[in-house]
C-alpha cells in the first residue's frame, strides 16, 4: 500500500495562524472558530508561499479546491469537521422529564475517565445542565493550568457561555434555589476569569453520541 503523502495546512484566520504540518494542529486552530480560513497544500514551500498571500488568492483554486471558511453552518458538513481532538474534556447533561431532576458530568476523551459528576438538582433544565457542565469544565481546567478544548453538544449552552449569561426562562422555586445559586456562581466565574480553552461543538451527526452522554434516551 502506497504511503499517504503528508499535507501542510495554511491557517489564515483562526486561534493561531501559520503553516501546520498535520490536520490535528490545524483543527485546533479552526474547529469552532467562526469565520476560520484554511487550506491544505501538498508541499511545505507551496504552503509557506500561500501563507504570505491573501487567502482569496487561493480559495477555491487548484486541485485542492479546499480553502474553507468555517462557521456554524459549515461545521455540519462531514468533510469540514474532521475528528474530535482526543486531548479534550467532553461534557453532557441529563434531564428527567418526569421529575425535573438534572445532573451533568465531564470526561477526558482520550481515556474516557470521568472527571466530575454533579447532581441531581431539582427543577432544572437540560440547557442549564449543559451550561453548568461547560463552566465547571473550564474552571477545573483553569485550576490545572490546562488549555485543552471543551466539547458540548449543546449550541444553546455554548452560546450562553460566550455571552457569560445563562438566558434561561426557568423560574426560581423553593426546590431549585441551589441550582440558581450555581448559575450565579457560574456567571460570576465567567465574568471574572480569562480562559484559553476553545469551547467546541460535539458533532454528533458525524462522530456519534457524545461520550459524556448518560445513556438514558
Automatic annotation (TrEMBL):
User: From which domain of life does this come?
Assistant: Bacteria
Mind telling me what this protein is named?
Ribonuclease H
Report the family membership: Belongs to the RNase H family.
Q: Which GO terms describe its molecular function?
A: metal ion binding; nucleic acid binding; RNA-DNA hybrid ribonuclease activity
Q: Does the keyword Hydrolase apply?
A: yes
**Which sites bind Mg(2+) 2?**
130, 153
Q: Which Gene3D superfamilies match?
A: Ribonuclease H-like superfamily/Ribonuclease H, Ribonuclease H1, N-terminal domain
Kind of enzyme, top EC level? hydrolase
* GO cellular component terms, A-Z: cytoplasm
Every copy of the RNase H type-1 domain together lies at 83-217
Q: How is the cofactor bound, in the record's words?
A: Binds 2 metal ions per subunit. Manganese or magnesium.
| UniProt keyword Chloroplast, yes or no | no
Amino acid at each position: 500500500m502506497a504511503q499517504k503523502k503528508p499535507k501542510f495546512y495554511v491557517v489564515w484566520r483562526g486561534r493561531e495562524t501559520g503553516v501546520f504540518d498535520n490536520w490535528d494542529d490545524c483543527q485546533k486552530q479552526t474547529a469552532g472558530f467562526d469565520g476560520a480560513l484554511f487550506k491544505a497544500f501538498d508541499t511545505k514551500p507551496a504552503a509557506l508561499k500561500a501563507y504570505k498571500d491573501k487567502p482569496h488568492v487561493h480559495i477555491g483554486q487548484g486541485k485542492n479546491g479546499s480553502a474553507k471558511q468555517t462557521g456554524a453552518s459549515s461545521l455540519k458538513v462531514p468533510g469540514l469537521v474532521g475528528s474530535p481532538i482526543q486531548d479534550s474534556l467532553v461534557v453532557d447533561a441529563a434531564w428527567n422529564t418526569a421529575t425535573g431532576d438534572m445532573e451533568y458530568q465531564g470526561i477526558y476523551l482520550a481515556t474516557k475517565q470521568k472527571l466530575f459528576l454533579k447532581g441531581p438538582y431539582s427543577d432544572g433544565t437540560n440547557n442549564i445542565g449543559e451550561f453548568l457542565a461547560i463552566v465547571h469544565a473550564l474552571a477545573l481546567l483553569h485550576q490545572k493550568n490546562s488549555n485543552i478544548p471543551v466539547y458540548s453538544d449543546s449550541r444553546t449552552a455554548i452560546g450562553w457561555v460566550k455571552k457569560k449569561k445563562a438566558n434561561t426562562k426557568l423560574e426560581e422555586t423553593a426546590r431549585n434555589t441551589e441550582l440558581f445559586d450555581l448559575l450565579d456562581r457560574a456567571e460570576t466565574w465567567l465574568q471574572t476569569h480569562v480562559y484559553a480553552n476553545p469551547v467546541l461543538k460535539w458533532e454528533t451527526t458525524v462522530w456519534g453520541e457524545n461520550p459524556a452522554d448518560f445513556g438514558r434516551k
